[in-house]
Design a protein that fits this description.
- With 299 residues, the chain is mostly beta strands.
- A hairpin with a 2-residue loop joins strand 3 and strand 4.
- The protein is elongated, with a radius of gyration of 28 Å.
- The protein has 2 domains: 97 residues, Immunoglobulin-like, CATH 2.60.40; 164 residues, Sandwich (Jelly Rolls).
- The relative contact order is 0.16.
């Protein structure tokens, strides 16, 4: 009798498993629609400077729900169909690091309504702007002689920022900034105008650069206390590149620390570079550094 009960148990389990498997196979799977995004465009107005951008990621919401984050250009499926609200948040590589994509807080969100149809692909061409109410503490295009970065901090007249009009060296417009470091003049450091109003703690601050450089360039914050002592905090690097690049430097943490320090008289943005050292001596030859469109932005 026990053997018979055991056999009936095995048979019943098999029937249940068989029914479950059939249900899985015969269940109706949702058929997705698809969205294709190549890039974001950026529109700027007077006072906002260049419309150059490097938006590398898109954070996607469909019908109010987060679908995911995708590298551009992007193709992705959407299980929702019919009329749907699509929200696209532009993302950038924080400090130029691909592993740290972030929604850029100073660009608007692109929102559109799309009729999604299963198995069909909709191409979306998002256009964003700088959000209203943000402040451009620095807006340097190097198109005139009123430079923001005019304080020579290396005491070497041969490594001052100069204007170049060479078409092979200019990023856009008529001029870009240029400096050359060499074995004879190996150090370069320049400071922006000085700010005496300290940044608010925990506000968002970013600096934008266009650059092309044969030597690593460091970007930092220099601040002076009431005793005329100057401290430097260089954390970000513009890496060597033979092509013009755009970078978004997240300086929020640095400015938060600065805003909490006592007895600070003023601060400025610093840029520096140096010839590489090899066998205890500066390398021979020279290295060219080109910079354009520096912005310092905050809420």
């Amino acid at each position: 009798m026990k053997v018979l009960d055991y056999c009936w148990g095995i048979l019943l389990l098999g029937l249940l498993l068989g029914t479950s498997a059939c249900d899985i196979i015969n269940s109706e799977e949702p058929i997705p629609a698809f969205i294709h995004i190549v890039d974001f465009a950026l529109n700027t107005t007077v006072g906002e400077g260049t419309d150059s951008r490097k938006i590398t990621e898109v954070f996607v919401f469909v019908g109010g729900d987060l679908l995911g984050a995708y590298s551009l250009p992007a193709d992705f499926p959407v299980l929702k169909t019919g009329q749907q609200q699509i929200q696209l948040f532009p993302g950038v590589q924080d400090n130029g690091i691909a592993a740290t994509p972030e929604i850029y807080p100073f660009y608007t969100t692109y929102t559109t309504d799309v009729e999604l149809v299963a198995l069909e692909t909709d191409t979306i061409r998002p256009v964003v702007e700088y959000i209203d109410g943000i402040k451009f503490a620095i807006q340097e295009t190097f198109e005139n002689n009123l430079q923001v970065f005019r304080e020579d901090l290396d005491n070497d007249p041969q490594t001052q920022l100069i204007f170049t009009r060479d078409p092979d060296e200019v990023f856009e417009g008529q001029q870009s900034a240029k400096v050359v470091v060499s074995e004879e003049n190996p150090l370069f450091q320049v400071g922006s105008i000085r700010f005496d109003a300290l940044p608010e703690i925990n506000r968002r601050d970013y600096s934008e650069f266009n650059f092309r450089t044969e030597a690593p360039v460091e970007v930092g914050i220099l601040y002076t206390d009431d005793f005329a002592r100057t401290q430097a905090d260089y954390r970000n690097v513009l890496a060597v590149s033979t092509e013009w690049k755009k970078i978004y430097l997240n300086v929020t943490e640095q400015f938060t620390v600065l805003g909490g320090l006592p007895d600070i008289r003023d601060f400025q943005i610093g840029i520096r570079a140096a010839m590489a050292v090899e066998n205890g001596a500066f390398q021979s030859g020279s290295r060219e550094i080109l910079i354009d469109n520096i912005k310092l932005i905050h809420f």
